[in-house]
């Protein structure tokens, strides 16, 4: 049992893997935060989608008028979906990249730029900043993930 | 070759990793089930979104009337998207957590509560149960993932 | 340090893991490609969702008319969401499967069929091909992921 445990925790002792774990946890927590922001806007804007969510506002027509879309709610939801579309590839490809034996400094560069770009992307989407703010922050994160994928394929290629 | 294979399968011999693999597979299968439920409601409610999907109902106006949204279909789709938003962080953070060397009993507690909460969430969404049933089951899964992320960051922190 | 690095890169020396890394990177890149196709259709069809994205078309009503949905854009977005719903389980379950010690030939069979099916699915969705083209390619990928999940649960089962 002890020996096995030691083997299993080897990965977490590796610096590149520790860096990946740190940044992956941060961007996944950032993505999870979008749920709370959506809930906040749904409650403050009184804009719900499920009839059972408006039951506290009374019955019938009184409650029905809160079953509506709100621009702020929809904006956060788009940001959330964009996170899913971009953070999922980062976590998947990033894990493989971290296990492909890159230099710590190169790996940190990838993880830091991606994380910074996605945090900027969220601000750019929610404030919102004029374009190309959101577009550029999206493209930077995309390019970082692409670079990691290239390195994974170079190291692992077995078709 | 044999030696390498043995090394690669070490992880699956570790009990915490085996527990994670079991629960991650269960929640991912549960998420995949939402596709089948969506398909079931699309067919029984005759509510499709792609014109090519209604071709069996004839041509022109006869088929066009089945290109519509249905409340039951939309409800399952929202449940599916909510799964993506919550099960993706669980799988990503949970893997890092399983590799960070937690006690088996603590890890099992996290995995079991999350899995139970997400199964409850699906029932709460699809029946639907009155609030706060769905809200609470969502919050429990969210809190478990947050707790695992805290443990990952404590064990791995390298910024 | 060197020793640790060697341990961490053991996985990438394992052939099943290398095969998984290759196919996971390919399907994740394919999924990322959907973002570019969406952007391409948004620009060529002039169909945007965020007001700040239409600022280059002028102010007020001149720009507002480009805040609209377009069938081609919506089609790509549905394909993208379907990728998320199916490629996320493949990457999660596939990683656990690759670590559960399968035969290389069996693993390659799973990875290749899934990857082929998802590439076909994208073509079937975007062209679009008549049904059951898209339905079958979806079902094949689904069945492959299910088969891997069965093998993971058989090897890891610890509830």
Automatic annotation (TrEMBL), chains A, B, C:
The UniProt entry, under InterPro entries, shows: MAPEG-like_dom_sf (IPR023352), Membr-assoc_MAPEG (IPR001129), MGST1-like (IPR040162)
What are the record keywords, sorted? Acetylation, Endoplasmic reticulum, Membrane, Mitochondrion, Mitochondrion outer membrane, Transferase, Transmembrane, Transmembrane helix
Which Pfam families does UniProt cross-reference here?
MAPEG
Localization of this protein: Endoplasmic reticulum membrane; Mitochondrion outer membrane
GO molecular function terms listed in the Swiss-Prot or TrEMBL record: glutathione transferase activity
Enzyme superclass (EC): transferase
The UniProt entry's GO CC annotations, sorted and at most eight, read:
endoplasmic reticulum membrane; mitochondrial outer membrane
Supply the EC number(s): 2.5.1.18
The similarity comment for this entry is: Belongs to the MAPEG family.
Assembly and oligomerization? Homotrimer; The trimer binds only one molecule of glutathione.
Q: What is this protein called?
A: Microsomal glutathione S-transferase 1
Species this chain originates from? Sylvia borin
The lineage is: Eukaryota, Metazoa, Chordata, Craniata, Vertebrata
């Amino acid at each position: 049992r002890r020996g096995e445990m030691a083997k299993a925790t080897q990965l977490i002792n590796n610096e590149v893997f520790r860096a990946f774990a740190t940044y992956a946890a941060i961007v996944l927590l950032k993505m999870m935060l979008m749920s709370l922001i959506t809930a906040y806007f749904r409650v403050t804007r009184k804009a719900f989608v499920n009839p059972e969510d408006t039951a506290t506002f009374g019955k019938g027509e009184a409650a029905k008028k809160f079953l509506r879309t709100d621009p702020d709610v929809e904006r956060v939801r788009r940001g959330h979906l964009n996170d899913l579309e971009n953070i999922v590839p980062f976590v998947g490809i990033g894990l493989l990249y971290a296990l492909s034996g890159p230099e710590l400094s190169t790996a940190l560069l990838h993880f830091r730029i991606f994380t910074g770009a996605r945090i900027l992307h969220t601000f750019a989407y929610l404030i919102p900043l004029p374009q190309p703010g959101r577009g550029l922050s999206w493209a930077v994160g995309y390019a970082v993930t692409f670079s990691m994928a290239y390195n994974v394929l170079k190291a692992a290629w077995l078709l």
